[in-house]
TrEMBL record:
Species for this entry: Aegilops tauschii subsp. strangulata (Goatgrass)
GO molecular function, one term: RNA methyltransferase activity
Name this polypeptide is given: tRNA/rRNA methyltransferase SpoU type domain-containing protein
Classification of source organism: Eukaryota, Viridiplantae, Streptophyta, Embryophyta, Tracheophyta
tRNA/rRNA methyltransferase SpoU type domain boundaries: 57-206
GO BP terms in the entry: wobble position ribose methylation
Keywords: Cytoplasm, Methyltransferase, S-adenosyl-L-methionine, Transferase, tRNA processing
Length: 238
């Protein structure tokens, strides 16, 4: 049944990327809901799908503004078998061309869920089973990313390109109930305001994955052979 859902999702993937307003519903597929103004208004995939994927790590983007960054991050999450969560309000339409282009044909491999607000995401996070903690990545972080000890069940939280993380998110990530601390990536601060968001996610995510011996890669989608032809064997944009 699950394989059938995956195949159906993959079969619709090209049509989804042509319009991206209606993607297939199924395991490890992207399904988009939008409000009248084009902002994301519903889950991309269900909580069941996210849980089924057995993700050891998750990336959470809070109010991302630049579609190209989010698309690139989705590609990184696909490559590292990591779940992706987008917390609104978003600064772009979910059918943005730049978002699709940056993610290429990797969207069906990414478990994505959109949450309308931080409060909604917080409620969702609290309902998840197993050990888990929120880790905030911010210039004001108290731990250097490479010195911090990561664990399975960590959710790496990043803010918008211009404003960073809201106080409510920082508070939750710092509190004992949900959080594991605040983390920073060292950089020259005299003339560089911040790292690019997609770069920051890549640096942080792969350090966490390295410490966990890349164990999350064993949970990559196990797609049947027939499905492989739906995606290019060679990435001409690489």
């Amino acid at each position: 049944m699950e394989v059938g859902l995956r195949l159906r999702a993959l079969a619709h993937s090209r049509a989804a990327f042509a319009g991206f307003s209606a993607a297939a519903h199924g395991s490890l597929a992207v399904a988009v809901a939008s409000s009248g103004n084009g902002a994301a208004a519903g889950p991309v995939g269900s909580g069941v799908e996210v849980a089924r994927a057995k993700r050891m790590l998750h990336v959470v983007l809070v109010s991302p503004l630049i579609p190209g960054n989010t698309g690139s991050i989705a590609r990184t999450c696909a490559a590292s078998a990591v779940g992706l969560h987008l917390v609104g309000p978003l600064g772009f339409h979910v059918d943005d061309t730049k978002l699709k282009r940056a993610g290429l044909d990797y969207w069906p491999y990414v478990v994505v869920k959109i949450h309308d607000s931080w409060d909604e995401f917080r409620d969702y996070f609290m309902k998840q089973d197993g050990q888990k903690r929120l880790l905030a990545f911010t210039k004001r972080g108290t731990h250097i990313h490479s010195d911090f000890s990561y664990k399975p069940g960590d959710w790496l939280v990043f803010g918008s390109e211009t404003k960073g993380l809201p106080e409510s998110a920082l508070k939750d990530c710092s509190g004992e109930a949900l959080g594991g601390g605040t983390i920073r990536i060292p950089m020259v601060e005299t003339y560089v305001r911040c790292l690019n968001l997609s770069v920051s996610v890549g640096v942080a995510l792969y350090e966490a994955a390295r410490q966990l011996n890349y164990e999350q890669l064993q949970y990559q989608p196990d797609l049947p052979e027939e499905a492989q032809g739906l995606f290019p064997a060679e990435d001409i944009y690489g």
